[in-house]
Structures are given as C-alpha cells and as structure tokens.
C-alpha cells in the first residue's frame, strides 16, 4: 500500500507518540503529592498483583559515548566506578516500594533500558536482579528483557542475564550505512550485530530484536534497502522501525550535531518507511501497532492476534499490568490512576534517596475523563479501533470528538460507525493524528511552541 503524498503533507504536524495519556507536557501543573502517589500505588497493587502481577522498568543511564540521534536520558562517562553506587540506589528505591506492598509482588515483566544497560558489568547486573527478585515472586508467564549495545554486549552479559531469567533482548542497530553511522556518532559494523545475535540464539534467548530508525541524516532509500537486506540475513524475531524524533530544543547539544537540511523531509521521510515496511512484509514480518514488526512466532504478534497488545512508557508490550514501577533516574511509573516521574539528574535522584524519600519530582493524577480518553487512545494505538458502546467509555465531549474526525473520515483514514471507529489500512500511518482528535488536554491547551516530533 502506497501512502498518498498529499495526505502526508496535510497530516505531517507535531504530535505525541502516546506512550501515555495525558502526555507529559499536559500533566497537571500542580503535580502530584508524594502521599497521593503512594496511595495510588497501594490501590493499584492491591487490585492487580494477584491477577496479573506488576512490571518494572529500570533505567540505566550511563553510556561511554554520545550518539547524536538519541533522545534518552543519559550520562556520558567511561568511569565504571559509577556502577555499584547506582545499583545500590536502585535497590534502595525498590526497598521503598516493597514497604508499600502488603504481600510479595508478583513480577510479570522487567525491562532494563537506558542509556546502555550493558555498560554495567555482569556482577553488578547480577546484584541488581537478584536484589529485585529476592523479595518477589516471578509470574509463571514472566518476560524479562534488556537493551544491548552490539559493540559492548559480551557473551558473558548474555549468559548472565539469561541465567537470571531474561529471555528477550533487543539490539540498537539504527542503520548500517557508514556515512549515517558517522553522522550520528554510532559506529558499529554488521559483524558486531551478527555476533551478539548469534550468541543470544545459541544461549537460548526466545526473542532477539533489532531497533532500526528511519529519517536519520543523509539516509536514502538505498540505505534502507541495504539495512533491511542485512537485517534479513540475521532474521531477528522482532523489529522496531522507529521514526527519528528530531527535538533538539528538548535534547540540546546531542541532536544538534548535524544540520536540519541533512534530514529527509515529509514525503521523502515517509518513503523510507514505506520501503522498509514493504521489504519487511516480504520477509515475513507483520506490522504491529505503530513502527513495530514481528514474525508470527514472536509473542508480540501473538499478543496482537489475541488483542492483548499494550502500550506504556516502554512502548509496545506483549502483556499488560496495571502497575508499572519505574526505578532509576528519570524513570516514569504508572499506577493506572496516576503517573510519577523520578528526578532527571543522578545528583537529585541520589539526594532524595539518601533522605529516604521516593525520588519523584513530578506526576499526574488522572481524573475520570482522563481514564476514559486514555482507554480510547490505547485502543487506537494497539488495535486500530475503539468503541463507546459501553456507557462507561462515553465522555462529555464525544460528539465534538466525532465532529473533528469527520474530515479524517472523508480522507479515507477511518470509518465512523454509530458506536465505534475503525482505522483503515490507509489510515494506519496516521494513527497519531487520529488519536489527537481524542486528546482533550492537547486541544484545550494548544502549545505556543513545538513540543513534539512530527507525526509522519
């Protein structure tokens, strides 16, 4: 399916990626009191621990070098003496959450993100995971995963984490073209990716993923074809094919290492995705939600088929838990009823924990309207449809929302029925725009400056 270029031009506006609703810029200005956050965690844990367990996201911020495409919270250093003190802080924060629970938590999901989790040595990773699990139980259907850098992930990393229960790993590839790699300061030969992919499979990992990015500086259709061809050789189980989010006004110097003129624009950028999608589908991958692809044997594809796909601050996940605890600097936690983000610098994070305080610096309590709108946006992002047949999913401005969607329907991107909407095949690339029609907080508080990356 080819995307209409006129529609790309029309709908290529700044918009959220909807890993949450409300999105972070529209959290309540008054924030959240620590006691309110604690109460929401207790409530969520009590309601859901025995049924589905909880998820943990652990942010590991250290990297040895700066990649200029990266929008993550990171600290650049080659000083590995920072590892152990940071692990101790993570475990102290976990102990503070454990004190809120009335019973042992049932861990359904752990994800180590960054930064570069494989910056850390295996003994410190072992100390972290054993510390988390020593006072917890693993769900029968648990899924532990981590992000690995192909250049520094060793066989020892892979074996150690596998022995601790990790069965899924994703490797950041981005693009194999040498000029693109030099521009984004991420030099990694295909041989390094091949090595870690083969080692992971030999050890027994059930899912090996590769992260690719389209829209990078100097990237061309030829680059995408070559990168996908090399990716097909290794046949990862899951592929994240992300749109490069150019937000230098937020991320500062890291994303100003090249000129805006070096970036593919609008329809040129969308053509990169369409070519990548075409090649991936020919290779047997299925598109999952937005920007993700998986083989039929992968848990994410099965989750999509069973309508169990979920989206949160970690992106798409194959399972849903009501409570997700974020540990580490800048991590965001989600109790379903509230969001809370940790302090963004290691110094602030350390100070708060040393004062025996949860390191939360901002958050948001969801009101009844937020909870309803959140459900519709999750349905659209995960299943490309949503319904308000259940009166509990109706909200005061539903009629106005449907009126906003009429032009989108006229462009063939959705079908509107009496009690539901369904995204068409042509509309899937524009799902962020469709969600924006439901985003009441964005509509009521239209930003005067650009907050988000472009939708296309």
Provide a descriptive summary of the structure in words.
- The structure is a single chain.
- This protein has 456 residues and is of the alpha/beta class.
- It folds into 2 domains: 27-327, tm_1862 like domain (pyruvate-formate lyase- activating enzyme); 367-456, Orthogonal Bundle (Arc Repressor Mutant, subunit A), CATH 1.10.10.920.
- The protein is built from 16 helices and 19 strands.
- The strands form 5 sheets. Strands 9-10-8-7-6-5-4-1-13 form a 9-stranded mixed beta sheet, sandwiched between helices. A 3-stranded antiparallel beta sheet has the order 14-15-16, with helices on one face. A 3-stranded antiparallel beta sheet has the order 17-19-18.
- Strand 4, helix 4 (122-133) and strand 5 form a beta-alpha-beta unit.
- Residues 249-253 have low confidence and may be disordered.
């Amino acid at each position: 399916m080819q995307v209409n270029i006129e529609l790309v031009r029309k709908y290529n506006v700044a918009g959220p990626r909807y890993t949450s609703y409300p999105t972070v810029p529209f959290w309540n200005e008054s924030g959240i009191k620590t006691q309110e956050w604690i109460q929401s965690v207790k409530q969520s844990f009590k309601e859901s621990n025995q049924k589905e367990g909880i998820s943990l996201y652990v942010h590991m911020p250290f990297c040895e070098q700066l990649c200029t495409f990266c929008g993550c919270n990171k600290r650049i250093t080659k000083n590995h003496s920072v590892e152990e003190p940071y692990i101790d802080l993570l475990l102290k924060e976990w102990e503070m959450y454990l004190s809120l629970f009335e019973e042992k938590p049932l861990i359904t999901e752990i994800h180590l993100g960054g930064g570069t989790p494989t910056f850390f040595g295996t003994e410190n990773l072992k100390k972290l995971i054993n510390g988390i699990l020593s006072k917890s139980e693993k769900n029968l259907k648990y899924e532990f995963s981590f992000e690995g850098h192909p250049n520094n992930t060793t066989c020892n990393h892979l074996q150690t984490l596998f022995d601790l229960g990790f069965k899924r790993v994703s490797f950041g590839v981005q693009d194999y073209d040498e000029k693109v790699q030099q521009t984004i300061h991420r030099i990694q030969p295909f041989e390094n990716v091949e090595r870690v992919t083969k080692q992971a499979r030999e050890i027994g990992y059930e899912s090996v993923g590769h992260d690719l990015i389209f829209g990078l500086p100097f990237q061309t259709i030829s680059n995408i074809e070559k990168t996908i061809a090399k990716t097909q050789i290794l046949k990862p189980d899951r592929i994240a094919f992300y749109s490069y989010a150019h937000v230098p006004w937020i991320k500062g110097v890291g994303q100003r290492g090249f000129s805006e003129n070096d970036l593919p624009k609008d329809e040129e950028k969308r053509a990169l995705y369409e070519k990548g999608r075409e090649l991936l589908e020919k290779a047997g991958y299925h598109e999952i939600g937005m920007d993700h692809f998986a083989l039929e044997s992968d848990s994410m594809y099965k989750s999509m088929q069973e309508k169990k796909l979920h989206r949160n601050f970690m992106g798409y996940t194959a399972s849903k838990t009501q409570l997700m605890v974020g540990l580490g600097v800048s991590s965001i936690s989600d109790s379903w009823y509230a969001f809370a983000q940790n302090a963004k610098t290691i110094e602030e994070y350390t100070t708060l924990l040393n004062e025996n305080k949860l390191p939360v610096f901002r958050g948001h309590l969801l009101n009844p309207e937020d909870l309803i709108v959140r459900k519709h946006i999750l349905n659209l992002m995960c299943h490309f449809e949503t319904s308000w047949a259940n009166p509990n999913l109706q909200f005061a401005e539903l009629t106005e929302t449907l009126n906003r969607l009429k032009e989108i329907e006229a462009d063939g991107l959705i079908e509107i029925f009496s009690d539901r909407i369904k995204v068409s095949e042509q509309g899937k690339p524009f799902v962020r725009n469709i969600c924006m029609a439901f985003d009441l907080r964005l509509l009521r508080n239209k930003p005067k400056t650009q907050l988000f990356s472009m939708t296309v």
